[in-house]
Amino acid sequence: MNIDSLVPPTRAGYHKGYGWALIACIFTTLIATPLKEHLDLTNIVMLFLLTVLLVAVKFGRGPAVLAAFLSVALFDFFFVPPQLSFTVSDAQYLVTFAVMLAVALITGQLTAGLRRQADIASIKEQHTRALYEMARDLAGALTIAQVSDIVRRFLLNGFALDTVLLLPDEQGDLKPIAKLDSQLQIEQRFALIAFDQGEPVEDYTLSGYGYGAGYFPLKAPMKIRGVIVFAPNSKNPDAAREQKPLLATISSVVAIAVERLHYVEVAQATQVQIVSERLRSSILSALSHDLRTPLTALVGLADSLALSRPPLPAEALETAEAIREQALRLSGLVGNLLDMARLHAGHVTLRKEWQLLEEVIGASIQLLGRSLANHRVRVTLPKDMPLVEFDAVLIERVFCNLLENAAKYAPPGSLIEIAGNAKGGSVEVSVCDHGPGFPPDKQGTLFEMFVRGAPESATPGVGLGLAICRAIIDAHGGTIDAANQPEGGACVTFTLPSGTPPTVEEESVA
Amino acid sequence: MNEISPNIIFVEDEKQIRRFVRSALEAEGCHVFEADTGKQGLVEAGTRKPDLIILDLGLPDLDGVEFIRDLRGWSAVPILILSARSTENDKIVALDAGADDYLTKPFGVGELLARVRALLRRQGKNSEGSPVVSFGEIQADLSKRIVTRRGEPVHLTQIEYRLLALLIANPGKVLTHRHLLREVWGPSFIESSHYLRIYVGHLRQKLETDPAQPKHLLTETGVGYRFQP
Predict the structure, then answer these.
(1) What radius of gyration, in Å, describes the C-alpha atoms of chain B?
(2) How far is CA B8 from CA A193, B22, B48, B79, B84, in A?
(3) C-beta atoms of B198 and A387 within 8 A
(4) CA–CA separation, A365 vs A402, rounded Å?
(5) CA A189: distance to chain centroid?
């Protein structure tokens, strides 16, 4: 693209046109002079009219007007008797002059108008083509920097306008994409107004190169993506004002390009996340399989030792039983660690369904089986307990961990109480025992990983249970707290948001 | 156990697990045929006329679910799956594909034998088809549609009865939520699992001694329900 084709003719061009008009009239006079013996004066008038027409076609209105007057003057001076004088002997020539001048002016005017329109159409066509080429380049741009570069090059070459793309960063501040020309001043507040209000802000004196810049919002279909600043330089200080419709078009084209790149980024990030999620979950399940397989063999082999015939001596039997117990404990530990890894990896996918709390509590007690054999468990739930939405497998895990803790720390034969009720926007559940309670100095850290009530005690465990409970309850948007009861014993209370349970249609009684 | 010794096929790639399972089952008087790959397991299933198949879900050569689908194309033999619990979903898919029960690793010999016995017993019972089933304080006569508790009739709604009948027709078998919802309520209720929970709750209120800690209508959390006679 070159500058001349887009910028209208300059002053120098106009002056040249007047010179050529003068030369053309003199030339016509020179040609007509030898012919005046053979031609009627009417035909010589025709020659002059032709000259005016040609000047109008070639150089536009001004030179055509000059040519019209010159032609009349030259015709009068050289051809109308008395020759070489402006005086006219026959008055009817005045009519000739008037008609000649009128015809010359009108044809000149019309021709020049046509010529001008053709010029404008051609310039517009070039603009459109350039805009189209820019849009095509933008469609292929892979980074924001490329977008910025393409627009900048287009406007700098074609319109003597400098361009700066401002996009919001994480804090919402508008930051330029490319390095700024040191002379270029960007007014952050104008950019912010354009960004917030979605309307162009035109400041023709205060910023840019001192010639007035335009701040246009990048309005994309989804939202405003940033601001584009058009700053004219000294070559054409009025460019921003003159080209406003074009700049608005460019802004929307750029906005769409920026939005497209934004979604490309989102898609790529999602892709990466899916891949890493898949990797993590396959590592965890491979680990789970690889750790559980030898544990299964260990438990099973210890069992078959214990069941072997003839029966083993009592001591060996005890050993077999101990191996089994330890292997099961190890397996529980592996389960906790893997759960913690899964929960801590973030993005836990909850399989939330509307559940009966009673059922999950029952299932947890069933699952713990032998570990709870030495304790009594009492469940107190109101008759009209609403359905609660949660992931049953994970909440079962919470109950198992809390019950296991209670069974571990409270003395055999004591009562473990589970109570629940609906309160305002949430459902509150507590698991309390009649054991020694939590040590008072540990209450703040109980839910952290690897914190135990009694370190290095004979009670087995590593302190993951409560941490897992908290991770699970957090994922459900609930809260969990630990406290000691006034009459002694530990109490863990958690809440779950109650939401709006689905309606259940009553069965028509048969 | 049956008087004729039952044939059991055990598909598992870990040698030590195969060893103890085989010795435990043989001590019970079963014939055990081992397979360490899924493909070999299918060949054994086609030739040995098995009474039960025990299948590890984590086979190296074949997805356990594919194994079950393939087998169910031509055989109704009971399948017990062993899974290293990583997600409940694997179990649900396997059960929906046609498996009968599952056992989570690690498991003890006692648990394994209990499940095997239950599945073999059911296999034998299918032909008898006694219409009266007793459990706890309950007697259910499926031919007369009468359920009694300590001799007193228990009133069940139609849906409660349908649900109970479906559960006790499959003693020891885990029935997934989807399966129960489809059979009792119909296909449009497959996503409405809270209906199922509420009606199982009703049944427990009417039939269990302690509804909060049921002994017969058992919850398999995240998977489904099981009737334990």
Answers:
(1) 18
(2) 78, 9, 9, 10, 21
(3) yes
(4) 11
(5) 22
**Are A455 and A442 in contact, with CB atoms under 8 Å apart?**
no
Q: Which of A284, A289, A351 to mutate to test the interface with B (most CBs of B within 10 A)?
A: A289
Provide DSSP, A332-361. Answer: HHHHHHHHHHHHHTS------EEE-HHHHH
Please state at what angle helix A41-59 crosses helix A11-35, rounded to 10 degrees.
160
- Nearest 5 degrees, angle CA B16-CA B22-CA B25? 140
Q: Do A354 and B110 touch (CB under 8 A)?
A: no
**Residue A451 pLDDT more than 70?**
no
* Residue among A5, A251, A216, A239 nearest A127 (CA): A5
Backbone angles phi, psi at B73, to 5 degrees: -65, -25
Mutation target vs A (from B10, B54, B86; most A CBs, 10 A cutoff): B86
What are the C-alpha distances in Å from A125 to residues A24, A116, A156? 32, 14, 19
Residue A201 backbone zone (phi > 0: left; psi -120 to 50: alpha; other: beta) = beta
* Angle at B145 (CA atoms; ends B141, B148), nearest 5 degrees: 60
Element (H, E) at B114: helix B109-128
Least confident of A74-83, B48-57, B70-79: A74-83
Total residues found in chain A within this entry: 510
| Nearest residue of A to residue B58, measured between CA atoms | A289
Residue matched to tokens 């009817």 = A92
Close Cβ partners of A298 (under 8 Å, ≥ 6 residues apart): A323, A324, A327, B106
- DSSP per residue, A422-441: EETTEEEEEEE-SSS---GG
| Residue B215, phi then psi, degrees to nearest 5 | -110, -20
Whether B187 shows a pLDDT value over 80: the answer reads yes
| Chain segment A140-190, per-residue pLDDT in tens | 888 888 888 888 888 888 777 888 888 888 887 888 877 777 677 777 888
Q: How far apart are CA A166 and CA A185, in angstroms?
A: 13
User: How far A502 CA lies from chain B's nearest CA (Å)?
Assistant: 8
The candidate with the shortest Cα–Cα distance to A204, out of A213, A192, A217, A215, is: A213
Name which of B82, B85, B219 is nearest A359 (Cβ-Cβ).
Answer: B219
* C-alpha distance from residue A89 to each of A79, A176, A340 (Å): 12, 78, 118
Three-class DSSP category at A27:
helix
Q: Provide, as residue numbers in chain A, all residues whose Cβ is less than 8 Å from the Cβ of B207.
A: none
- Choose from A280, A287, A303 for mutation: most chain B CBs within 10 A: A303
Residue B174 three-state SS: strand
Q: What is the largest CA-CA distance in chain A?
A: 157
Q: Which amino acid is at B82?
A: L
Cα A404 to Cα A433: distance, rounded to the nearest angstrom: 11
Return d(Cα A31, Cα A45) in angstroms, integer. Answer: 13
Cα separation, B55 vs A295, in Å, equals 18
Please say if the pLDDT value at position A258 is more than 70: yes
* Local confidence band at B91 (pLDDT 50, 70, 90 cut-offs): confident
ipTM: 0.86
pLDDT tens profile A455-482: 555 555 557 788 889 889 988 999 998 8
Which pair of structure tokens corresponds to residue A417? 């109480």
Nearest Cα neighbor of A395 from A461, A460, A468 is A468
Q: Which amino acid is at A317?
A: L
Amino acid occupying residue A342: R
Report the gap between the CA of A372 and the closest CA in chain B (Å). Answer: 13
